[in-house]
């Protein structure tokens, strides 16, 4: 699989942190070379020390297991079962059956009747999709359970279901036939332009390999017609103990879990002799430079310049990891150059990146990806070529290396500091990825030690040499994707590439790192009130200038601090005569920088720091929610406060917007889902121009001058409320806010109500709406919107939420399991806090065009049943239990606490709802749901929306 940089390095999401003093080197655990378990897991082939917190084992039948006690989230556990089989193991007449087999795991086994697996999990508090899932790739099939409770009953149920999946699946012909339509629906849903471009790219980049010919979703003809026996052939050939790994981590006793695994899985024996390993194939490193063009009416124009070479299949080693560090630094520097280029005046491209990956054991690929400006693929080809040659010829600069070293170093440091509270789900998924990538899972502390040991040898020469190495020894290939026909495309692309190669390139001058200009905001603000919500341990502060601060110290996430910022009244302050201004702000505000610093300068200044740049507009506030560290909290607050005093509104934001929005807008009719996101919000608000996506010509009118005027009042004097949750000293947080936001001028005591701006209404006319998309000709969407109400009354809100959960279960059973008409039907309730009286309960399904009428009829029948019959006790349990488990889990999640704290003083009703959530949901009865359905789900009240293929423009 693609090289897992999350394991080799640190997650990309935290590569924005600063350096601090390196810890003393840790003793390196010795590799036990005579340990049979080490041999079974491959540890004896590597000098990389494994993480000893994992207990690794192997049963006599060859099944491997890994167990780890981990207390985040407290009281829960995660189970993963990885089977070493993916689409590359399929024969010609089995294309898609590895994925089909994954579906059959939910459709009956020796001890679990068809349709009962998901119900069993729901009764134990697992939501289908969120806590229960599975996936199939080219190389593996993975089953996932995230258990809300780690008690014996739930864990035993999870292990029982994994054992059923491993060796007891029924694969009944009638169940197979019912599942065909579901998988074809999933295939339709995934058949977007991005998927089609990927298949074209893999076919061009990896010719002759199974990866190019075995997309996991499969061949539709095979899905329609393959007999159950061919699925069973794959199952019995490849679902074997010696191809399976079981992973359990969480708030568990490893000894007890190991005993359960041995008792449950030791009797599992293969039903057939072992099959030969699939021969994936490899690439020809001597392939001459060639080109390919992928045309699709929905695809944004893009260019890939790349080289491939046979994959390095040698064992994981410290040497390979050091090489990966050098490659990562080089590609980060080149990606940064491309980002800067895209922000220049009249840029030739709108974005780009560089990477180096391993593709499913078939090849190693060094690539530059360029997003073209409009349809200008020629300029994009030239940029890719010239930027590559500039880096190969002249290398990178010391300033560029220093910036990326700061990012990378603090990523390792952050990983080591936060190691104690890593989530069980993430630990389990990381081990699955490591197995697939043939890597050893190490500790964050060892990765930091390795980086610090290697850092003195990371020079410009070393990085430049590593970058040249990944681009040397193979001929560049060029893949272009676009909308328009290119006459004799391969020759035209090659001519453009050759023309660019004849152009001279020059080195980039070194740059200096500026100092941040916004450190001193004046005299720190005085605290006017200071109180505590005792039962929830929330401290509430109001400064003399009316800035409000809510703090909760937790130990759920080591060395992580979550911050919320709410300013003014948000998009309510935008006039209706500026449609798209909210979208403009959310896309372009960060690009406007600050008065003293452009966005590029800010990114350099904040290299090695965990901070967020930019603000966004929500319904009722301007602001954001982000994650930083105790060390970087002050810089984060300085940046946010600087946006109040000196927002840049630079022309950079206008340029980026004008370059990007036409490209983005062209994708808005590429699928039913894209059309729904663009048009439905305006439909259900009676055409209010503030909702949905306005026409392109109106979006192109939006600009920084308008945004500056529209946000001026809020930034100057609007109410401000700040939430801080996590690993933080309360007094330190108060002092930081006092020095930043507390030092600002007087703010409004509360957000402006803007009563007139809050008036929206559901359309009175319920005439069905028909919209059209330009995607695949067999794809449609059926939607029903029932108007409800706002969330002013908690019990009403909770009842609607429960009603939608029950409807979702019924839709899944009827539309997916009985009719086989859709992969993932959805029902949800949305009740507004911003717009009085406004809300809706929604049922939505992606369907085949020919199925749309019977799906709509089935939805109507479900709504009628909810109105006329009480909900069964089992449905009530399966809908309620996952909600209650989410409520309980939220008490141990910083994400839930920051959502509560963001307006804990302005809207104290949320505090009381937080307290009452479980008892309110527990008290809702079947009669309550029937009464709610009778009130809200009347057939005549529903607004029905169909999204159909445009017969003149669809993609066949």
UniProtKB/TrEMBL annotation:
<dbReference type="InterPro" id="IPR011765">
    <property type="entry name" value="Pept_M16_N"/>
</dbReference>
<keyword id="KW-0732">Signal</keyword>
<keyword id="KW-0378">Hydrolase</keyword>
<dbReference type="GO" id="GO:0046872">
    <property type="term" value="F:metal ion binding"/>
</dbReference>
<feature type="signal peptide">
    <location>
        <begin position="1"/>
        <end position="19"/>
    </location>
</feature>
<dbReference type="Pfam" id="PF05193">
    <property type="entry name" value="Peptidase_M16_C"/>
</dbReference>
<keyword id="KW-0645">Protease</keyword>
<keyword id="KW-0482">Metalloprotease</keyword>
<dbReference type="Pfam" id="PF00675">
    <property type="entry name" value="Peptidase_M16"/>
</dbReference>
<dbReference type="InterPro" id="IPR011249">
    <property type="entry name" value="Metalloenz_LuxS/M16"/>
</dbReference>
<protein>
    <submittedName>
        <fullName>Insulinase family protein</fullName>
    </submittedName>
</protein>
<feature type="domain" description="Peptidase M16 N-terminal">
    <location>
        <begin position="76"/>
        <end position="194"/>
    </location>
</feature>
<keyword id="KW-0862">Zinc</keyword>
<comment type="similarity">
    <text>Belongs to the peptidase M16 family.</text>
</comment>
<dbReference type="GO" id="GO:0004222">
    <property type="term" value="F:metalloendopeptidase activity"/>
</dbReference>
<dbReference type="InterPro" id="IPR001431">
    <property type="entry name" value="Pept_M16_Zn_BS"/>
</dbReference>
<dbReference type="InterPro" id="IPR007863">
    <property type="entry name" value="Peptidase_M16_C"/>
</dbReference>
<dbReference type="GO" id="GO:0006508">
    <property type="term" value="P:proteolysis"/>
</dbReference>
<feature type="domain" description="Peptidase M16 C-terminal">
    <location>
        <begin position="706"/>
        <end position="881"/>
    </location>
</feature>
<feature type="region of interest" description="Disordered">
    <location>
        <begin position="271"/>
        <end position="291"/>
    </location>
</feature>
<keyword id="KW-0479">Metal-binding</keyword>
<dbReference type="InterPro" id="IPR050626">
    <property type="entry name" value="Peptidase_M16"/>
</dbReference>
<feature type="domain" description="Peptidase M16 C-terminal">
    <location>
        <begin position="228"/>
        <end position="408"/>
    </location>
</feature>
